[in-house]
Design goal:
It holds the Pfam family FlgD. This protein is of the alpha+beta class. The protein folds into 2 domains: 68 residues, no CATH class; 54 residues, SH3 type barrels, CATH 2.30.30. It contains 2 helices and 7 strands. The N terminus is likely disordered.
């Protein structure tokens, strides 16, 4: 959990707390904006175009995070679709630098650091990027 505080001269404190530093919502942005407006130098105020740029950047980052979450979910769904299918995949690399092509039935899915790996009947854990063929 990331917590940051902004203090003003009147001893009030505004705290913004997020589970992810890049997952800032509109309410969080407005709280920061109000704090910035309260504490800005009246002789050198922040321009409205700069505020609009900050908000646009916040919106873009938020949308990118949502897209990444969607792609991660899609990757997990794709891994589950391989259950019960026979896959061909690149096996271990031999001492001469060549790799073997293996074929086995997918019996499960395991996750390592939130990345799905297919478990085969032979006991191998196969990354989705190593799959070279699929059959029912």
């Amino acid at each position: 959990m990331i917590t940051s505080a902004v203090s003003s001269s009147d001893s009030s404190t505004t705290t913004v707390t997020n589970s992810n530093a890049y997952d800032m919502g509109t309410e969080d942005f407005l709280n920061l904006l109000l704090t910035e407006l309260e504490n800005q130098d009246p002789m050198d105020p922040v321009s409205t175009s700069e505020m609009a740029t900050q908000f646009a950047t916040l919106t873009q980052v938020s949308q990118l995070n949502k897209t990444n979450d969607y792609l991660e979910t899609l990757s997990h769904t794709q891994a589950v679709d391989y259950l019960g299918k026979t896959i061909s995949y690149t096996g271990e690399t031999n001492s001469d630098g060549t790799s073997t092509e293996k074929t086995s039935l997918v019996t499960g899915v395991v996750y390592k650091d939130s990345v799905p790996y297919l478990m085969t009947k032979d006991g191998d854990q196969v990354a989705l990027s190593s799959i070279t063929g699929v059959s029912s």
